């Protein structure tokens, strides 16, 4: 059974930064899976933030490019999301997902002054 666990969310002021982590565990070859970060804000549809292929190619959603950076450490079974210059509109639950449709439970990011 695969488990994805996110951490690193919290409350931050506009313009601030956060680094999210997603650790994968279970019978799982993490390095074989493209991974992605998604987010869901209240009353809005879940949307892609950014995803990364097995070989490191990065595909951004509509709002993240230039501010957010995705990376992966296959030796640690961990996916990261570095978020800079955060805006109020970035407030959401952030979730990681693999290409087999396994989802984490999410971590709350709140951007507010």
List the keywords:
113 residues, mainly beta, six-stranded mixed β-sheet
Structure explained in plain terms:
The chain has 113 residues and is mainly beta. It contains no helices and 10 strands. The mean pLDDT is 94.
What's the total count of β strands?
A: 10
Describe the largest sheet: 6 strands, mixed
Widest β-sheet, arrangement of strands: 2-10-9-4-5-6
Q: What Rg is obtained from the alpha carbons, in whole angstroms?
A: 13 Å
Strand content: over 45%
* Total of helices: 0
Principal-axes shape call: globular
Helix and strand topology:
Blueprint: E1 3-7, E2 10-12, E3 18-25, E4 35-40, E5 47-52, E6 58-60, E7 68-73, E8 78-83, E9 92-98, E10 107-111
Parallel strand pairs: 2-10
Antiparallel strand pairs: 1-3, 3-8, 4-5, 4-9, 5-6, 7-8, 9-10
